[in-house]
User: What shape does this take?
Amino acid sequence: MEKLEESAAKCGLVARDVKNATVANIWTLAWAISLGVISYLSDYGWYTSIWVAMVGFGIHAVIGVGMVLAFKKFLTEADELERKIQLDALALSVGVTIVFFSSYSVLEKAISIPGLSTAYLIVVLALAYSVGIIFGRRRYR
Amino acid sequence: MKNRLKVLRAERDWTQADLALHLKVSRQTINAIEKGKFDPSLPLAFKAARLFEMPIEDIFQDEAMV
Assistant: This one.
């Protein structure tokens, strides 16, 4: 733990943030993998009964809750500048996603374009969040 | 908000990393505060005041009042 603290301090980071961010990233990775596996199983007809589907849904939901709690812990305990950067990025991602989806739905009614799937929602959120983080880091460098 | 963190740090021959370690924040936070890009929270400002053993207003000044 001391080694983590020392190497984090050398990079100008707080060891607690590095640890919490790593835990949150592991949960996020697990959530993404579970989403992929469950979608794959669904596409190939593995859900032979409602109970199997419920177990799949349950596992994915529990991992999702774990991911949210891990990210909440990271945000709550984060260094105050890091928290500001994260919250600004989250605000940007929510705003961009709402504007993007509302504009697209208006366009969808006006002209003939393909409907949006939920996968796009995650992609737009993730992209806007990443851009927000990059801009935040540059602003306070 | 203006502050004297850089001067106070230099008087003690501390690096930004040293001050960050004392205040339990990241070096980037100290850098952003010193450059006036980021205003610290009240608990952090009090922590700095305790560390330097001086009143909070001797470290941080409202630019409108300066």
